[in-house]
Amino acid sequence: LPTPLTPPPSNRAAKALVKADFALTDSIKVDKLQIGSDKNLFVASVEGQDHVFINPVVLDADDATDTHPEGCLSLPGVVLNIQRSKKIKAMYRDHTGNQVINDFADGWARIFLHEFDHLQGIMIDDRVGPVARMMARKKAAKQAKQRAMNTVTQR
């Protein structure tokens, strides 16, 4: 297992990351950032509460899975049905540097695994076959074109 970060980034650095996040829905915000070469982290802000995960590690992933649509800021407009474990056990350091081991289920497990994938260089379109990837990209391009046309029409 990777060694958890020592020492943690300052509270100021963690708060700066939270300020730089992107809204995905009204209640969930997520962002990830890699600092330096050995300090991986992401910030999840759910219903106004910020959570910092430094050098996260998935210790266990339940065999029970479900499939839900996921989007990603790195792939604007692309939405894919992604299969993920319903429950996971993860280890990470929080914004104060304390090592934490937590069980996450359902939505939290999905958010954690999505952002953890980013730290591993995995995108949601890596988790589907080529046909699903191509169809989702075509649909996103068509929707972007339609939005652009609507913007021009509204002027």
Could you explain how this protein is built, in words?
The protein is an alpha+beta fold and 155 residues long. 31% of the residues lie in helices and 41% in strands. It contains three helices and eight strands. The chain has helices spanning 11-19, 106-119, 130-154; strands at residues 22-23, 28-35, 39-46, 49-61, 65-72, 75-85, 87-93, 99-105. The strands form two sheets. It has a six-stranded antiparallel β-sheet with strand order 1-2-3-4-7-8. A hairpin with a 5-residue loop joins strand 7 and strand 8 (99-105). The protein is globular and about 55 Å long. The protein starts with 10 loop residues before the first helix and ends with a helix. Mean pLDDT is 78; it is low at 1-8 and 17-37.
Overall structural class, as computed from helix and strand content, comes to alpha+beta
Spans of 5+ residues with little confidence (pLDDT < 50)?
1-8, 17-37
For the residues shown, what is the average pLDDT?
Answer: 78
> What is the approximate shape?
globular
Largest beta-sheet details: 6 strands, antiparallel
Into which percent range does the helicity of residues fall?
Answer: 25-40%
Count of helical regions: 3
Strand content is: 35-45%
How far apart the termini lie comes to: 55 Å
Question: How many strand elements?
Answer: 8
Kindly report the spatial arrangement of strands forming the biggest sheet. Answer: 1-2-3-4-7-8
- Gyration radius over CA: 17 Å
**Could you spell the SSE succession in H and E letters?**
HEEEEEEEEHH
